[in-house]
Amino acid sequence: MIHYIPFLKAKRGEFNAMSELTSEVKQAICPFFDFPRKKDDYDSASYARKTRDIASGIKKHWGVDDDFYFDDLDIAQKFKVQSEEPYGYVLTALKDLQIIPVVGLGRGPHNYSVVHNKREGEISSSTVAFRAVQEDFEDFELSKDQIDYDLSSVFGEFENIDLILDCRVCGGLDVSQTAEQIAAFARKFCKSYNVRRVIVTGSSIPQTIGDLVKPNNAKIVTRRELAIISKARDLADVELITGDYATVSPFFSDADFSPTLFQKVTAPRLIYSFNHSHYIARGVSLKSGGQSQYVGMTKALCGQGFFRGRGYSMGENYFDDKRKRVGNNATNGTVVTPSVVAHITYMALDAKL
Questions:
Q1: What string of DSSP letters covers 25-65?
Q2: What is the number of structural domains in the chain?
Q3: pTM for this one?
Q4: Distance between CA atoms of 99 and 125, rounded to whole angstroms?
Q5: Is residue 281 a contact partner of residue 213, using CB atoms and an 8 Å limit?
Q6: Where in the sequence is the domain holding 30, given as residue range(s)?
Q7: Which of 304, 297, 313, 303 is nearest to 347 (CA)?
Q8: Which of 161, 159, 221, 173 lies closest to 201 in space, CA to CA?
């Protein structure tokens, strides 16, 4: 039974994490992949290349038999890809996989691609996901006409709708007010449409980690998205499934700077989730602190009372190895997979959702 939805960037580290999850964890989740942002906008050629890489990554690491969601919400839609709207190109590339397409308000060409590809037989799913961001779910009555105008033709092609209420970064949100909006919108939407799942997601990690933690420091941050979901669950009379953005911000994008600046601007970081909180540790620049900073950072993490210990998942094993200096030094790239595995395993098996 699916009871947790991790929202992940469609990138190598996250795909590798899918291969490292146990079968018990995989059975409890349905991943949601977002087309990854980058500092410079994609053009037709780079979007096509990335799409091919994504299709290969999902097929290899998640497989061809299990459902997943896919969206490109954060990508500027300024171009065609081989005469197709970008999301239409994605749907065609992923047609042999179990993709659940995602639609939203004010996304006309994107939504039309879903209708077109469904009618062409290139989408096998009987379910479509409607992703509503906060401005969409603040008031159902105010959004209802636009929902019908933008999405009635889409909904007509599918048997079921998965409603996704996406809070994005929750740091500045009022917990009670947002929970009340979610509960009311979910209740009214479910009365008006044929809904299979209601998913609520968000993150307490801002785009810039420095907004939370100073260099060479560690901090425990309360996960506001879980507080919102918990309160909304108390208010709603429909089941709410928990989602989150794992250990990165919804607004994360790949850095784009000269290789000569890499040592100056790159610093190690660790995010580890427990008990409705994130433990976030930050180092200093590689030029100042060197390549071995993760040794001390993982040693500090493994010494915490909330660390779940070796054997819990591949993630905990990796952190334990790095504190013992087993293998190569950890890097910002290599910690992604173990961090995501540790997070998803905890959220799927032991977090009180």
A1: HHTTB--EEEPPEESSPP-HHHHHHHHHHHHHHHHHHT-SS
A2: 1
A3: 0.96
A4: 7
A5: yes
A6: 4-213+222-256
A7: 313
A8: 173
